[in-house]
Design brief:
- The complex is a heterodimer.
- Chain A is of the alpha/beta class.
- Chain A has 8 helices and 10 strands.
- Chain A has helices at about 15-35, 45-60, 80-90, 100-105, 125-135, 200-210, 275-280, 300-305, and strands at about 40, 70, 95-100, 140, 155-160, 190, 220-225, 230-235, 245-255, 265.
- In chain A, α2 links the parallel β1 (about 40) and β2 (about 70).
- Chain B is an alpha+beta fold.
- Chain B contains 9 helices and 22 strands.
- A 6-stranded mixed β-sheet of chain B has the order 2-3-1-4-5-6, sandwiched between helices. A 6-stranded antiparallel beta barrel of chain B has the order 7-8-14-11-10-15. Chain B has a 6-stranded antiparallel β-barrel with strand order 16-20-18-17-21-22.
- Chain B is globular and about 70 Å long.
- The chains are: A alpha/beta, B alpha+beta.
- At the A-B interface, α1 and α2 of A face α2, α3, β2, α4 and β7 of B.
Chain lengths: ~300, ~425
């Protein structure tokens, strides 16, 4: 074959990363300039950590013009929460945390009686409550268009109506790099500065910029539950082995970081960024393939986005 | 050399556009095993044999149900030479505004033509849009060569008509490539079945095209996005200004003019990504400190004193109308150009453009959804602008309805 797959050596060109960085910083500055009260969703995962890093580049030597907001499901990896608090403190920026448990206690969100369903869908309720409470008109998030088919269609400045809904058929035309971030009271914008990055771009940038990440992105030993369909989850109070399922100590890492109830682990010995990039370049499964919240139907993500999901 | 190339693709399902994109993604191994498996399952459910490559790209439920592309989908793949961003645009007339969205940021447009059919009206429309939006490179893929037994004469007949059209539309850089998206001929690798084709295959061509910035030195245009006040009260740090340098370069010590005020000063310091620099080269998002205390705010522009942009509040422009609410003379809008937002009035509509060949036609009943027209606009504040044909970043604008906040039209300054 005269042509070879692009990522065999696992490297993305540095000037390609600089071009993506320049675009993301421009988007962050537009979001901050156009919004009255923006916020940045920060979970401690790798994508939102990259955005925080880009935001520091965009606005230093000044302060970040927005607080960090985390919607905590109560089912997060403890390592991620430690990392989240450490990074916010190190930057000296404001971190707001809103908890799904509080929405449940107030009766706004109802937990599914099946513990295997998880709280992923409930996050949007808590997020919309936080947006209403703090009157955010612009919510910056880390979604990428390469993650999923519905996301591939979404604008960089993506309008949400007063119910937080995305309407794919009537998206605002987004021409050149002229973003229309105007909203009326009660409505808001979701802004996605990493829209044009791929998973591999993110990792290459993390390597290039030496950005620290939560330890669970790298190989570590952990008690794991293997579900009947083969999915590996981290054993915890909410994840226990059922009939026909096994629990064992394994060397694993996360590819994405979400709830412990739905974040699939991969068995891995990759303990450095270079080793992780090597594994991803060779991987046959997409990143969201390890998240079974997307596997429900062909339109799972589209449906959740319409309802106000990130 | 540029490392990211932005492509827009247009054509209908029948022309094999989704198949072509699927082919580029699959052959460059940008599609992973689980995504392929999902597309195979969906193909089987629909009764297709094997893998329907088109199913890899249609993202919305309505699109899969109707088998059409409604909105722009963005796809990514990379080769050792560069990263590609594909804006996969709908071909149907009804979604012209979505095509304009995808084409507006493209460095190259890939348009598909079916070799078994004559040039369709749709192709004329797609080429006209590429011409009007001044996409620097146009690639016309003459597809389905497998259906004409890879016949050179069949290709030549279509290619001649494409060249005539390109000539009439004054399209500068046009490549015409015979391909079979279905069979993979001349897509990622040169086809052994068309040895008579002397040019490159599609991917090799896309790897070789040069960005517009590289062809000539661009005078400085730095629209100011925001002001940064260094952290810590009384820290004594000077305020600095942020902006995106699209093309060209800027050095510490360079003389600049602040527009529209006309004040001259020098660049005292330059940062990109928090690090000091002696020289910035576009595309880059930078932060600039100035030698003098001058009044600079969002919407102002730093420019080269030797080659400044036009400064004025009256302009003539071609617009693509994107709203079902028609454009009528005397209507008022918000105009956003670079980082400036100002009120404006559309004083008159000169004429409309027939989008099948850019012929001038009378405005008649007004300007409706998906119409193109040439208009005169008066803004309440002066714009720092260049003609769109010279600078896409400073020559483009959008019109916004102030009550609904809808984006009504996309404009290109003449």
């Amino acid at each position: 074959m005269g042509y070879h797959a692009p990522h065999e050596n696992g490297s993305a060109g540095v000037s390609q990363l600089r071009e993506l960085e320049a675009e993301s910083i421009y988007i962050l500055r537009e979001a901050a300039a156009q919004a009255r009260r923006p916020c940045l969703l920060f979970s401690g995962g790798k994508d939102s950590t990259v955005i925080v890093h880009l935001a520091a580049k965009a606005f230093r030597p000044g302060r970040l013009p927005f607080p960090l907001l985390h919607v905590d499901t109560g089912h997060n990896f403890p390592e991620t929460l430690t990392f989240r608090d450490g990074l916010a403190a190190e930057l000296g920026e404001e971190l707001l945390v809103r908890r799904v448990q509080d929405s449940i206690d107030r009766g706004r969100a109802v937990e599914n009686s099946n513990p295997r369903v998880g709280r992923n869908a409930l996050q949007s309720i808590t997020l919309l409550e936080a947006i209403a409470e703090m009157k955010f008109d612009c919510v910056i998030g880390g979604a990428r268009r390469d993650e999923e088919k519905a996301r591939a269609k979404e604008r960089i400045f993506s309008f949400r109506d007063e119910f937080g809904q995305w309407e794919p058929r009537t998206q605002r035309p987004e021409v050149w790099n002229l973003y229309n971030g105007r909203v009326r009271p009660g409505e808001h914008m979701r802004v996605f500065p990493l829209s044009n990055w791929t998973e591999l771009d993110i990792w290459a940038y993390i390597r290039e910029e030496k950005i620290p990440l939560p330890s669970i992105y790298f190989s570590h030993e952990r008690r794991c539950v293997r579900r009947a369909d083969g999915t590996l989850l981290a054993a915890c109070d909410n994840v226990k082995a059922g009939a026909g399922e096994t629990e064992a100590s394994l060397r694993v890492r996360c590819r994405t970081v979400g709830d412990m109830t739905c974040t699939g682990l991969v068995e891995s010995e990759a303990s450095t960024i270079d080793e992780v990039i090597g594994e991803i370049a060779a991987a046959a499964t997409s990143e969201r393939g390890t998240r079974f919240d997307d596997k429900v139907s062909d339109s799972a993500m589209e449906d959740r986005k319409r309802q106000g999901y990130f | 050399m540029m490392n990211v190339l932005r492509l827009a693709t247009a054509g209908s399902v029948d022309d094999g556009k989704s198949t072509l994109i699927g082919r580029l993604l699959v052959d460059s191994r940008a599609v992973l095993e689980d995504q392929l498996a999902a597309a195979r399952q969906a193909s089987a459910r629909r009764g297709a044999e094997g893998l329907d490559l088109a199913l890899l790209t249609d993202g919305l439920r309505a699109e899969r149900e109707q088998g059409i592309t409604i909105d722009v989908a963005y796809r990514y793949f990379a080769t050792p030479r560069r990263k590609f961003v594909i804006a996969d645009c709908p071909g149907h007339f009804q979604y012209t505004r979505n095509m304009v969205t995808g084409v507006s940021t493209a460095d190259a447009a890939v348009i598909l033509v079916d070799v078994t059919k004559d040039l369709q009206e749709q192709t004329r429309r797609h080429c006209s849009i590429a011409s009007l939006l001044r996409v620097p490179h146009l690639v016309v893929c003459v597809n389905k060569m497998d259906l004409v037994a890879y016949s050179e004469s069949a290709f030549r007949a279509v290619a001649r008509r494409v060249q005539e059209l390109a000539g009439a539309l004054q399209l500068a850089d046009v490549a015409v490539i015979p391909i079979s998206a279905l069979q993979g001929d001349n897509v990622v690798e040169p086809s052994a079945r068309m040895p008579w084709h002397r040019g490159r295959c599609l991917l090799a061509h896309l790897e070789s095209v040069e960005p517009p910035c590289a062809s000539r030195p661009a005078p400085l245009r730095l629209p100011i996005q925001s002001t940064i006040l260094p952290r810590g009260a009384g820290g004594g740090g000077a305020r600095c200004y942020t902006g995106h340098l699209a093309c060209g370069s800027l050095r510490e010590g360079d003389e600049v003019v602040v527009l529209p005020a006309g004040t001259r000063t020098r660049v005292a310091s330059l940062y990109a990504g928090g690090r000091p620099l002696a020289r910035a080269e576009g595309p880059a998002s930078i932060t600039v400190g100035l030698a003098d205390e001058v009044d600079v705010a969002r919407g102002d522009m730093l420019a080269s004193p030797a080659a400044p942009p036009r400064v004025g509040s009256e302009l003539e422009a071609s617009v693509c109308w994107m709203s079902p609410v028609p454009l009528t003379p005397g209507s008022r809008y918000l105009l956003r150009q670079t980082t400036l937002e100002t009120r404006c009035v559309v004083e008159s509509v000169r004429h409309k453009l027939d989008i099948r060949g850019l012929r001038e036609v009378p405005a008649g009943q007004g300007v409706g959804l998906n119409d193109f027209a040439v208009v005169r606009i008066r803004a309440s504040r002066p714009l720092c602008a260049d003609p769109y044909r010279e600078n896409r970043a400073t020559g483009s604008f959008i019109l916004i309805d102030e009550t609904t906040n809808a984006t009504m039209g996309a404009g290109m300054i003449l």
